[in-house]
Every structure is written in structure tokens, then in C-alpha cells.
Design a protein that fits this description.
Largest sheet of chain A: 6 strands, parallel
CATH superfamily of the largest domain in chain A: Response regulator
Strand content of chain A: 15-25%
Distance between the termini of chain A: 63 Å
CATH architecture of the largest domain in chain A: 3-Layer(aba) Sandwich
Number of strands of chain A: 12
Oligomer: homodimer
Shape of chain A: elongated
CATH topology of the largest domain in chain A: Rossmann fold
Radius of gyration of chain A: 26 Å
Strand order of the largest sheet of chain A: 2-1-3-4-5-11
Largest interface: A-B, 54 and 55 residues
Chain lengths: 334, 334
DNA sequence: CTGAAAGCGCTTACAG
DNA sequence: CTGAAAGCGCTTACAG
């Protein structure tokens, strides 16, 4: 319980025979310090087991060494492993750069709420946001000069920095694959198209038709909400209105599984009667029967990229948003 | 980009006509301050839009307002929504108590690694650990006086504070249910029994047999590793060695699904020939066919409890470990 | 390249 | 109940 008196600059300065200012310079990588003195300081640091006091550094320098990861309450991280994976990718990269990850699970809609205040107070050096429905708060913070990265494309093309999966490319590849394997009538069950991801996947689907000089019938486009149930319900509608539908791109794996259930309950088989492709390459895509063909995104890499863009910003570098590639994974359902 | 000069104690003190010490007392809830002065300070705080500088507070008080959540690298949070859910429960409660959550995804085995140093350096006020295989580091930190809570039972019964699901009770209830529904020969596919959770679920299974004055045949106890594949493989072994097995408690939902696959590929049906119960009540338990009967644990509540125990410790209260109740959810598989 | 000194914005004995 | 003052452990112009 009795804490050993932790060494401070004063102890190191004494031990190394230099001033505290020099200790500070060495520890902050100031290259102008005389090599011998640098060595002496480093040796003292090592011998004394010195460790910087982050609070003192923060107070004096104005930098906290903390990056917030803000997750909207609505996002049900509760059932979705997606966010956890992104976050661990972020954390890994941040830690390697001596930054800590502050997790905030909260309502992000309030431009004037506690989170906004916290971030404005500069209690963190930057903030990484997860896909948001409303980006008013983020834009305000960005305008105030807080380094920001968004995971997922923002709605407005403000000059916000973001990283995202190639949703358009994924939707395109999935749809194309269905046509390539011989499907004549390919439908889509979209996710929440209020989100950019949902919208972009649909755009990819439409693009395939466009390149063929065709336009998909309205009845082939059904809107789900990423839930299993919505996949099942929308598939039933599809089969009713288009008994000859023979290919479906469901915008996530969960809906794809719901769709498969609906297809099988109608007496049809997958993929022979109707081929199905999902999106995410979640565990379920491997455990389901038939195994699901799907669009794989490297989620951890998405988080790592977000962290890297943050670090680049902190270093004052000019940064650009990044779109991460996807990969079509073919299993049994298509 | 030009930051407006943020107000400090000096501005509030001036505006309220009191000393900075009094401002500090009011803001820290010191009840001895004269009510009128308190009101004056609060008014000034409000008018000036004052917000405390956490770094300064930390430096002066020694308290950082930060709680670390340490997640072992091995735990594949990558595919498991469990940890994300626990973490969001923790974060919610911590935020409500003006504490921030610092996420550390890292290797926890090293008693002398960077994480240990970070935590020892008191850059956080406390640490919440997730289920660990080796608790040497945690014990060391606890001995050094760092407030600690563990999510999941520790291996040694050191006096570490922890919160855990009632794994024993869950295993007991699942096994009991299988017998109650008429199963004569109930097997178990365990999870990693190097973990306490895995071990306790098995203990619950054994206890049911014990109360019946019976001992399960060795061949009825198969060890999986929580993966779908292990559930499938172990179930095949079970069916081979015990063709008349008619009930299986799989220690998580994923293995239960693997087991169902093996049962069906053998030409048997679930639950008529073999009833199956899983553990977790994950999404998959609802999306699978047949829908899975399982043991539900309130994962977010687990995180909330962990945070509450941490806060109690910070308040100097005497705290005791908590075991959270589980609930048997019966669907189609048993 | 280096040091003395002021300062970052709070908290907390110490007196009264 | 309140204030003056010292101090928390760093960083950073300013001189030299």
C-alpha cells in the first residue's frame, strides 16, 4: 500500500548531472541534445525505473495522449461483433504509438450533450467516431480543430476524414457473381439505407444492371433492416411477387440467413433454385447450412486504418480518407 | 482554430467573489461551504461554461478519472460479441459516474510488460480485467493497491474481487432440463476447461448426476474448445461411442450448433432423437433451425456490475464479488 | 546545445 | 467556513 516514491525529473536530472529541461528534451526526442548527456539521461531513466507522469505532461503540454472512440448507443454493439473488432484494431495501433483509447458508448445525436462537451474540452487529443446517422456534432468538433476520423462514410461530403469498407464494390461484386453463375433475375434485400453503407451496397447492385443496359424491376428491390427477421420477411415478399427470382444479394449475412429460411420454407432449395450472397463473412456464414457465400471485409484492418489516419493527423500530416478493399468469398449458397 | 480562452478557477473565483480554494471545494462537493457562496460559484460556472481540466485535476489530486478495461489478446474478441457487450455495460456505468473507460487490448501474461507498467504508474485509478488464464500480473497489481475487478472467476481463490455469470447454475439447469424432458443418457461437450467458466459448467453437469446418485460415463464427457467445429467433431465421437445418447449440453451455442449438424448428418433429428441445449443465448440461437434452447446470461449486466464494484472500491467501500443469475431459455432443440 | 524560471490548472494541508 | 500559499511533475519560450 505504501507507494515507493516515484522518481521525477528532479531525480533523473540529479543522477545524470543535467538540468530538468535537458531531461525533458531527451525524453521528447529533441535531437539537439549532446549525445553524451542524452546517454546519461537514458541511463538514469533506466536505473531509476522512471516513468513519465501522464497527467503532468498533459497539463504542461496540452496533449493528453488519449484518443476517444465514440460509439453511438443505437448501434447495437450488443449483438454485433463488428464494432468490437474495429475497436480492437484501433486500440492495437494506438497503443503501439503510445496513445490510449478512451471508449465512449453514448448517444451521439446531441450537439450540446456531455460527450460533445467532453471532447470540446480537449480531454482527448482526437476522436474516432463510428458510423453515424447525424454528423452535426462531428462537424462542429472538426471545425473547432479537433482531429477526427470517422469509421464509415459520412453522409455529407464535408471534408471529414473517414475510413470505410468498399461497400459499393462489394455490392457490385456480389451482384455480378450472381449473374455470372447464371441467375436471370437477381434481387436485393438492402440494409438500412439511411446509412451510407446500406446505400452504397445498393448502388453497387444497380451499377451491375446499368452496365448491362438494364434496370432492375422495382419489385426486386426490398428494404430490410439488417435483422434476420427482415431478411426472412422481405424474401417472402420477393418470392410472392417474383416467383422466378433466382438470385438474391442480401446486404448482410444475417438477412441472407433469413432469406434462405424463407426460400426453403417455400419448398425451393439454395443455391439451385435461388442463389444467395450475404455480406460480412461473419461466423454464421460458416456455420449455416448451406454455408453462405458472402462479401468479406477486413474489419480489424478498418480499425487499424482509422487509427493510422488519426496518428497522421496528430503529426500534422496531410491525410486522405481511405476505402478498404473487400473480397468475395464463395461457399455453398452461390 | 483559435481556441477561445477557456475559463479557469481564477475566472470563476473572480466572478463569484470567492477564493479559488472555495471554487475547488464547491466543485468537489465539500458540504461545509456556505450555501450562498456555493450558489454564486455554481452560477459563475454555468455562466462561463466552465469545465474542469482533467489533467490539472489529475496532477494535483493523484486521481486520473480513468479506469482501464484490459482485454487479453488471446480472447478472440474478434468473433465474439461477448466482450463488446460487457465493455459497453462497463462504459455506460462508468460514464454515469464521471469516469472514463480506457481500453487496452493486449497480452496480459507479462508481469513486467508495458501494460503492467502503465497500470503500476497509476495512470488509471483502477483496472477491470477480462477473464484471464494467468492472474500473476493482476495479483501483483492488486497487492500494490490498485483497485481491481475481474470479469470472470479467477483461478486461485485469492481475495480478488470479481463478477461472474453463474456458470455452475447454468450447467446444472441445462442438464437438469434434459433429464426432466425424459432424456436417459445426457452427455456434455465442454468448453475450454482451462477456464473457470468451462470448468464450472462441467461441475454443474456433474452435480445433477451426483444428486441422482449416478456417475456419468467417461465417454459422455467430451472436451471441445467453444468452436463450431469442435462441437461437431465431439458430437460425432459421442454418437459413435454412445449411439443411444439422447441429450447433450453443449457449453456454448456455437458448439451446440456444431453438435446439431453432427446429429442430423447421422440421420437423427433434434430434439426427438437427441435434445440439445447450448449456453449464451447468442443471436445464432434464434436464427438456427431448429432454434436452440440455451442458457441465457445477461452480459451487459455483468459489465455494469463490474463497473459498480469498481466505483464502490474507489469510494473506499468494502465490496464483495458477485455471481449473476442465468436463465434457461427453451426453444425448439430441447 | 543548455539552464533558470515561469507556467500549465487544479488540490490540499495549514491557519484562522 | 474560508483564504493564501505551496505543490503536483512536467514543458517551453527566453537567454545565452
Amino acid at each position: 500500500m505504501t507507494a515507493k516514491p516515484r522518481p521525477t525529473y528532479s531525480a533523473i536530472a540529479k543522477s545524470a548531472g543535467v538540468s530538468e529541461a535537458t531531461v525533458s528534451r531527451v525524453l521528447n526526442g529533441d535531437s539537439r541534445v549532446n549525445p553524451e548527456r542524452t546517454a546519461a539521461v537514458l541511463k538514469a531513466v533506466d536505473q531509476l525505473g522512471y516513468r513519465k507522469n501522464r497527467a503532468a505532461t498533459a497539463l504542461a503540454s496540452g496533449r493528453t495522449g488519449l484518443i476517444a472512440v465514440v460509439i453511438d448507443d443505437d448501434l447495437s454493439i450488443f449483438d454485433d461483433p463488428f464494432w468490437g473488432t474495429v475497436t480492437s484494431g484501433i486500440s492495437r495501433v494506438l497503443m503501439a504509438n503510445h496513445l490510449q483509447t478512451v471508449l465512449m458508448v453514448t448517444a451521439v445525436n446531441n450537439v450540446d450533450g456531455p460527450v460533445a462537451h467532453y471532447l470540446e474540452s480537449r480531454e482527448v487529443d482526437g476522436a474516432i467516431f463510428f458510423q453515424l446517422h447525424k454528423d452535426a456534432m462531428v462537424r462542429k468538433l472538426a471545425k473547432a480543430g479537433l482531429p477526427i476520423v470517422i469509421t464509415g462514410s459520412p453522409h455529407t461530403d464535408a471534408d471529414l476524414i473517414f475510413v470505410d469498407t468498399d461497400n459499393f464494390g462489394g455490392g457490385y461484386a456480389a451482384t455480378k457473381q450472381l449473374l455470372n453463375r447464371g441467375c436471370k433475375k437477381v434481387a436485393i434485400i438492402t440494409g438500412d439505407i439511411e446509412t451510407t453503407a446500406g446505400h452504397q451496397r445498393l448502388d453497387g447492385y444497380n451499377q451491375v444492371y446499368r452496365e448491362l443496359g438494364r434496370v432492375p424491376a422495382k419489385s426486386l428491390i426490398r428494404h430490410g433492416d439488417y435483422s434476420y427477421e427482415s431478411g426472412q420477411v422481405q424474401m417472402r415478399h420477393l418470392l410472392e411477387e417474383n416467383p422466378d427470382v433466382d438470385g438474391v444479394f442480401a446486404c448482410n449475412d444475417l438477412m441472407a440467413l433469413g432469406a434462405i429460411a424463407a426460400i426453403e420454407e417455400s419448398g425451393r432449395t439454395v443455391p439451385d433454385d435461388v442463389a444467395v450472397i450475404g455480406f460480412d463473412d461473419s461466423i454464421m456464414s460458416r456455420t449455416s447450412r448451406p454455408q453462405l457465400s458472402t462479401v468479406r471485409q477486413d474489419i480489424a484492418a478498418l480499425g487499424e486504418a482509422a487509427a493510422q489516419l488519426m496518428i497522421a493527423q496528430l503529426n500534422g500530416e496531410q491525410v486522405e480518407s481511405r476505402i478498404m478493399p473487400v473480397e468475395l468469398v464463395l461457399r455453398e449458397s452461390a
